[in-house]
Design goal:
Shape: globular
CATH class of the largest domain: Alpha Beta
Strand order of the largest sheet: 14-13-12-11-10-9-22-23-24-25
Oligomer: single chain
Number of helices: 27
CATH superfamily of the largest domain: Ribonuclease Z/Hydroxyacylglutathione hydrolase-like
Structural class: alpha+beta
Number of domains: 5
Low-confidence stretches: 1-6, 822-835
Amino acid sequence: MPRNPPLTPILWLSCGFLFGQVVAPWTAGWAFEAAAVTAAISLLIRAPRSDGARLIALTAVVATFGHRQLDALLHPQLPPSHVASIATADAVLRGTVDESPRLTPSGSRIVLRVDGRRRGAEWLDAGGRLLLTVRAVTRDWERGDRLIARVRLRPPRNFGNPDEFDYEQFLARRAIYTTGYSHSDRDWQRLPRRHGLGWRDSMRSRAVAALEQVAPDHLRPVAAALLLGDGASIPIDIRERYARAGVSHVLAISGLHIGLIAGGMYGACRWLLARSEFVLLTLNVPKLATLASLPPALAYAAIAGFSAATLRAAIMLALFLSALLLDRPRHWPAAIALAAAAVCAASPGAVFEASFQLSFAAVIAIVGGGRPLRDAYDRRAERRLVRLYAPRRHAIERWLVLSQGVTVLALLATAPLTLHHFQQFSAVGLVSNFFVVPITGMAAVSVGLAAVLVTPILPGIGAALFGLCCLFLDAGDAMVAFFAALPGSAMHLPTPGWAEIATYHALLASFLVRPPRLRAFVTGAVVLAAAMQWASWAAERDGDELRMTFVSVGQGDCTLIEFPGGHVMLVDGGGLSATFDVGERVIAPLLLRRKIRTVDTVVLTHPDYDHFGGLAYVVERFGPTEIWTNGSLGRGQLFEEYRRRSENSPARAVVVRRGFERSFAGVVVRALHPPVGQAGPTNDASVVLQLSYGPMRALLTGDVERVGEALIARHAIDPRSAILKVPHHGSRTSSSDLLLDAVRPSIAIASSGFRNRYGMPHRTVVDRYRRRGVELLRTDVDGAVEIRVAPSGVAELTWGRRWRRQRLLRLDANGEARSLAPRCESPLTPHPLDA
């Protein structure tokens, strides 16, 4: 590989800038910057004349700029006039639509740049960006529109489960610290625009208008995503279909689009310039055509919105063309590093985005593995003299090998990242890409891009080109539907962690190491590391610990129980709304991160939506063998959907009553409620389970209230339990003195939503637990609560929303718990929401 000394510092500086942003979420700004500057000064003092020391010192300084840029977004010093200061109230706001609205299952998403808020009859200055969800949109809104709207504000908030998608940081990286909700935009007031549509928005609006006239309904969102970068508006069923077929990448604008425009413009300019003998003799036609191909590509990247993949492709194209114009050798590691740093400089924190990781992983694999693949094929063809005796066959063979090899390289590089972010892998991707990409990713894109650029000038020709593009899209969509319907098209596999992803990529990179002896050593070391990771996971899975996780699902209940030996039970599944599937969005990612592919037993304590809402997805995807219920049926369409999926599954229905008992690897599960003969959809008919493991006992109470609690206290055999799942989310009608006297818990966990409208857990209930010295943990404040119990009775309690905290406990024969370490938090300390 040719080395380019002038570009080598760019590689160092770019990697330093990226490193600063990578560590920003976990390091304090002043501490990191002080350490980096101190290291730089120390290097310069110790080796003032060393070029290497100077380069490393400069890299350390550049890292502080990357760190400071992202740290300023993650930990901002907001002024008092920022909209975040009123993020817990309803407000009338005035502002400008800052981005093109996006359609989602929960409504339209509008980013509003606020410039004022109304208090009484006067307007006060305000600022900040607001992510606004509008359930029913009745009017068309575009970027640059000004409006006045009444909205309900609240701060963005994660659920607080381990290793979950960090929604708070996702918005903070976009300088959004407040979210809002409005049921409808009917009463919004539209204000005069301050500026007309820019050239970018004008071209986008004309292209969208042409698509609406030409494209069928089922192809319109695909065309908008493929040509204009509007991927967020694709319906879930279409997105799922393309993901199952393994071709979801064709829905995102990438280097292929930019390359097609640049290549097409280069070919057209070179052909036109070559028509003139004078131009051929006096000018450098290839360089002139190269220079002319850059502006259209950059203009299209701007129209598409400069996503991570688009920006990466545009920057790398600019670097590549610049190297050609300046007759400089190409240095692809420096070019990729510089493109990555430029993307993160334009969009701080993009390195944590799935699109960034997938895009750069694919391009590194293609560039790094493409040359060895090409050289290997050329050596084989030369040995067989294919080029000499069959040149046409050689050209076709070489194109097939290289084109499909590039696809295989990209899929291999992105497979673990796809599993990590989306918990899904398509087994038919290697085959489907061979058919879909040429039609959808090349033919449709080529015609569609020409239509986007031509429509503002020649609308008639643009409409005809869009029509031809839709023909290609229709054919590609039919192929996608075929591959998505094949068995094994979507495999929901355990989610790899970052250590496993790094080991996997190190294994791929080891095959490129030279010489062969060093390659064998590196490959062996990586395989050994992978084997150690697998052994560690297998030992944890087959250990003798009982693991209970009280999952944070908002205003609802969900408890994940992992028994020794691998049996998995899920008690309830939460449920927020019909547009947000807790099972798919919260529970399934948690299960797959725990390497759980099968939930053996599902328990529905009673048929309320905040208990069964997420179970339909779990029952369908994780194949339980038994579903325990109290025998009563719920009402409404949502319960009928859950019931339909349950009945279509192979799971056996089991009705649980007092006296029911099962044992899983030494853990005894007993039902204390409801009694025989009592049924119905009421809270007091909830299934109540007690788990016993050695000296540990835990009581899961569902939504029982005073009547059910009295029955448990009077008729259950020894209900004493050190761990109590607080009944009915801590409502005022539950957690009676009678129950608490009978159970005598040491630790109680209340599952409730943040600032829920029911006021749960109620203040009187919180005080009742604290007066008894019970440590009360809450999923709305503390996030998911995890308890790991050994057979000896030693338990590890883990909780905390962003920074997880731990404490060791000793459980005695009476079911009580005492701390083996200093308490991190007193049970008498008020929670923030109770202050």
